[in-house]
Structure to design on (756 residues):
C-alpha cells in the first residue's frame, strides 16, 4: 500500500496527492509517469508525475475527475492509501540528458493546458534548478480551473495565465497567447513543450509549425500495463508505430498523428461513460436510461 | 474401473456448448479412481523416455507408480522436487510434444496421460493442504529474481529450497506473469490454481515485491551494489507485441492479443462488474495460430463474438497445442487457414469494418522447416468484422538490457544466456525464459528457471 501523506483540492474537480512511494521518488525524472490503482479491483490509471521529494520518498500526482475511477479517487484523504503505485514509467524529458551549456542558451516556452499544468511543473522546476528560466503559458477553461500558478511563478521566468472565457489573465486559447507573444510582443523561443488535452496539443503544434518552433508534446493515450507489453498506447509518429509508454510519452509534436490518436481515445468511451454513470448515480440508478443495459 | 490399455482413461470436460458461454475451467480433471486407473497403464520403463521429454526432468515413472498405489502425497513430493508449479504444468504443458510424445505406450496406442496425472496429483495436494518442503539450513545470501512468471517462480522456488534468501520483483500489481495476464481463466483458474501455486513458492520463504519495474524503479546494478543482492536472475518475459505493419492497423477495434488477454485475465474485464473495459465484439478475427491466438479467440467467443482464426499456413503447421485447437473447434471457432490479412478496413469513424485477406498456398520449406506460405495472386477477399486481434508473437522488451551495464543481447535483441546454467555476459547475472529465447512455453521457461537456479548456486558456492 502507498500512503497518502497530503491531500488537497486544487480546483473543484482537481485533487493533489503526495504519496509515499520511495522507489519511484528515488528514481523519477521530469516527463515520466506512474500507474496507480486505488483498490484491489480498480483499473490501472496512468498519471504524470507532478513533483517528487527524494528525501521524504514522496511523489506528487494531480488528478482530474473524468471517469468512474478518478471520481472515486477524489474522495481519498490524508492517511488513506493507494493499493498500487508503480513507476517511474516512460522516458524522462529529453532535456534531462542534454548538455547543460547548450540547454542554457535555449529559450523554452511551456504551454500547459488544464491538468497538463501538473506535468509541466516538475520540468520547469528541474530547469530552474539548473539555472534555466523557462516561460510558461498556463491555460484553463475558466479561472476556477487554473492550477499551480503560484508554484509555477516561483520556478519559471514569465508566467502567462490564460482562460478560455476571459475570467482571468489573457482571454482566449493558449495558441492565441503563444502567437501574440512571438508575433506582437517580440519574444523568441527555440523550443516549445506543450502538455494538455490532445486537441490543445494538436493546435499548439499547428501554431508552432507556422512559427517555426520545434515542439515537444507529452502523449496520454489509453494504456494497460505501461511497460510495453500490451500495445494499447500505440501512436503513429512520423509514419512509424510507437508505444507511448516505452518510446514516449514525449514525442516531436510536429510528427505525431493527432487525429488518429484522438480517434483511438474514443475506443472505450461508451463503456467508460456507463461506468461513470453507475458510480455517480449508485443505487439511485435503476436502468431505463437506454444506455446501461440495466 | 475397466481400462483399455491402448487408450487413455477419458477426462471429464465441460460440455462444449455450455462452456462457450462461461469462463469456468474446460477440463475437469481425473478423480482418484480415474487417476489410479490411468496410472495403471504406465509400463514403468527402466530407461524412461518420458523423462527425457520433460524440460524440468520430473521423475515421471516414480510419481505415476505412487498414483497407482494411491500414495498421492508421496507422488506430490516426487513431482515437487523437480517442479514448482505442477498444477500449472499439468494444465498448460504441450505434453504431446514432450513427455507424452516419447511414451512407449504411444507407439501402438495412446500414450499415458501424464499431464492429466500431474494435474490430479497437484490438485489433490492443494485440496489436502500439502506444501513443498522448505529449506532447513539458510545460506545467508540474497538473490533477486526479476519477474514472477514461470521462469522466475521456478528459479525462486529452487533457490529458496537450497536456503537462499530470495526476493522476486514484479512489474505488475499481481504476481504470476503470463500465468495471470496471459492464460485465460477457463484454461488456468487464477484463484484456485495460480494463486495457490504462488502461495506454495512463498511458503518456501520467497518474498515478492510487486509494482517494481526493473530498469525504471531501480536497476540490476543498484540491486547488486546498494541492496545487497549477490546474484540476479532475469525472467522478465517476452515483451512488446508485434503487429503486421499493414494499412488500417491503428483502427479502433484492432488489439494485440496481449492487450485483449491482459484486460480479460489480469484486469478481469470478462466480468461485467470489472472497472476495466473490454470490447465485446460481434465478429472477431484473430490473426495467428499459436496458443495465444487460441486463448484470444476462445476469450472473444466467450464474450459473445462469432470468432474466426486467420492463419497463413495449414492446420498441420498450427503451433498451438493440439488440445487447444481441438477445444477451440468444439466450441465453434471457425478456422480460416491458408489465409493472410493484407489490409484492415475501417468505417468513417475509424472503427474496424472488415479484414481484406489473401489466400495462401504452401511452397518450399523455410528455415523453420515448415513449408513457406506463398500468396495466390488475385485471391483477395474480405471478412466483415468489428474486431481484429493480432497474435503474432512478441519482440523483447529493452527495459532491462538497456539499463544494465555489460548485459549483452543478440541480433534478435534477446538477452544472451548460456543454456545449461543461464549465465549472461555479466558476472552474477543469470537469465532464462522468453527474455532469452523469445516467446516459448511455460514449461521451457520453468526449465530455464531451474537452470538459472543451478547456475546461481554454483556461482555463490564458489
Amino acid at each position: 500500500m502507498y500512503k497518502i501523506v497530503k491531500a488537497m483540492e486544487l480546483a473543484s474537480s482537481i485533487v493533489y496527492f503526495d504519496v509515499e512511494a520511495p522507489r519511484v521518488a528515488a528514481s523519477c525524472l521530469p516527463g515520466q509517469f506512474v500507474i496507480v490503482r486505488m483498490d484491489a479491483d480498480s483499473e490501472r490509471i496512468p498519471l504524470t508525475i507532478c513533483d517528487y521529494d527524494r528525501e521524504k520518498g514522496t511523489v506528487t500526482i494531480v488528478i482530474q475527475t473524468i471517469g468512474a475511477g478518478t471520481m472515486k479517487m477524489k474522495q481519498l484523504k490524508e492517511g488513506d492509501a493507494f493499493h498500487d503505485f508503480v513507476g517511474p514509467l516512460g522516458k524522462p524529458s529529453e532535456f534531462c540528458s542534454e548538455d547543460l551549456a547548450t540547454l542554457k542558451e535555449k529559450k523554452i516556452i511551456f504551454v500547459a493546458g488544464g491538468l497538463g499544468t501538473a506535468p509541466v511543473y516538475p520540468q520547469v522546476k528541474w530547469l530552474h534548478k539548473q539555472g534555466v528560466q523557462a516561460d510558461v503559458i498556463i491555460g484553463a477553461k475558466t479561472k476556477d480551473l487554473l492550477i499551480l500558478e503560484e508554484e509555477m511563478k516561483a520556478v519559471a521566468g514569465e508566467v502567462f495565465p490564460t482562460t478560455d472565457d476571459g475570467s482571468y489573465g489573457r482571454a482566449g486559447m493558449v495558441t492565441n497567447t503563444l502567437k501574440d507573444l512571438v508575433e506582437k510582443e517580440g519574444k523568441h523561443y527555440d523550443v516549445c513543450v506543450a502538455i494538455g488535452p490532445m486537441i490543445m496539443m494538436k493546435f499548439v503544434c499547428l501554431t508552432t509549425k507556422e512559427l517555426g518552433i520545434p515542439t515537444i508534446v507529452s502523449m496520454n493515450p489509453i494504456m494497460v500495463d505501461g511497460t510495453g507489453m500490451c500495445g494499447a498506447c500505440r501512436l503513429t509518429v512520423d509514419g512509424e508505430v510507437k508505444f507511448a509508454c516505452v518510446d514516449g510519452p514525449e514525442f516531436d509534436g510536429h510528427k505525431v498523428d493527432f487525429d488518429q490518436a484522438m480517434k483511438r481515445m474514443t475506443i472505450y468511451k461508451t463503456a467508460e461513460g456507463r461506468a461513470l454513470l453507475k458510480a455517480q448515480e449508485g443505487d439511485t440508478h435503476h436502468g431505463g436510461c437506454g444506455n446501461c443495459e440495466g | 474401473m475397466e481400462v483399455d490399455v491402448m487408450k487413455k482413461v477419458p477426462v471429464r470436460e465441460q460440455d462444449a456448448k455450455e462452456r462457450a458461454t462461461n469462463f469456468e475451467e474446460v477440463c475437469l480433471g481425473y478423480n482418484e479412481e480415474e487417476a489410479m486407473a490411468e496410472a495403471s497403464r504406465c509400463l514403468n520403463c527402466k530407461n524412461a523416455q518420458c523423462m527425457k521429454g520433460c524440460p524440468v526432468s520430473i521423475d515421471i515413472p516414480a510419481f505415476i507408480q505412487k498414483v497407482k498405489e494411491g500414495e498421492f502425497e508421496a507422488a506430490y513430493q516426487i513431482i515437487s522436487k523437480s517442479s514448482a508449479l505442477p498444477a500449472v504444468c499439468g494444465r498448460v504443458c504441450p505434453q504431446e510434444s514432450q513427455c507424452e510424445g516419447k511414451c512407449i505406450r504411444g507407439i501402438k496406442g495412446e500414450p499415458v496421460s501424464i499431464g492429466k496425472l500431474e494435474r490430479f496429483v497437484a490438485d489433490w495436494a492443494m485440496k489436502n493442504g500439502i506444501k513443498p518442503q522448505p529449506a532447513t539450513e539458510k545460506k545467508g545470501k540474497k538473490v533477486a529474481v526479476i519477474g514472477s512468471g514461470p521462469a522466475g517462480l521456478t528459479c525462486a522456488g529452487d533457490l529458496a529450497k537450497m536456503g537462499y534468501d530470495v526476493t522476486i520483483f514484479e512489474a505488475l500489481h499481481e504476481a504470476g506473469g503470463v500465468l495471470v495476464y496471459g492464460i485465460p481463466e477457463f484454461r488456468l483458474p487464477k484463484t484456485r490454481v495460480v494463486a495457490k501455486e504462488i502461495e506454495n513458492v512463498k511458503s518456501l520463504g520467497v518474498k515478492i515485491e510487486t509494482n517494481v519495474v526493473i530498469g525504471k524503479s531501480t536497476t540490476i546494478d543498484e540491486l547488486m551494489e546498494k541492496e545487497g543482492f549477490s546474484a540476479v536472475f532475469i525472467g522478465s518475459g517476452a515483451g512488446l507485441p508485434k503487429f503486421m505493419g499493414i494499412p488500417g492497423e491503428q483502427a479502433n477495434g484492432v488489439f494485440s492479443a496481449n492487450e485483449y488477454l491482459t484486460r480479460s485475465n489480469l484486469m478481469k474485464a470478462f466480468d461485467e462488474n470489472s472497472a476495466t473495459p473490454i470490447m465485446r465484439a460481434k465478429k472477431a478475427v484473430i490473426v495467428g495460430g499459436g496458443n495465444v491466438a487460441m486463448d484470444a479467440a476462445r476469450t472473444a467467443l466467450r464474450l459473445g463474438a462469432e470468432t474466426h482464426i486467420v492463419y497463413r499456413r495449414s492446420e498441420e503447421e498450427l503451433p498451438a497445442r493440439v488440445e487447444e485447437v481441438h477445444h477451440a473447434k468444439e466450441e465453434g471457432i471457425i478456422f480460416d487457414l491458408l489465409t493472410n490479412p493484407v489490409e484492415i478496413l475501417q468505417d468513417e469513424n475509424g472503427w474496424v469494418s472488415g479484414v481484406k485477406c489473401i489466400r495462401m498456398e504452401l511452397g518450399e520449406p523455410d528455415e523453420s522447416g515448415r513449408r513457406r506460405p506463398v500468396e495466390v495472386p488475385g485471391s483477395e477477399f474480405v471478412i466483415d468484422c468489428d474486431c481484429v486481434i493480432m497474435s503474432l508473437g512478441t519482440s523483447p522488451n529493452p527495459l532491462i538490457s538497456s539499463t544494465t551495464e555489460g548485459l549483452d543481447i543478440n541480433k534478435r535483441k534477446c538477452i544472451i544466456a548460456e543454456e545449461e546454467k543461464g549465465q549472461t555476459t555479466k558476472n552474477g547475472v543469470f537469465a532464462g525464459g522468453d527474455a532469452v529465447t523469445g516467446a516459448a512455453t511455460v514449461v521451457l521457461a520453468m526449465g530455464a528457471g531451474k537452470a538459472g537456479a543451478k547456475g546461481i548456486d554454483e556461482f555463490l558456492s564458489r
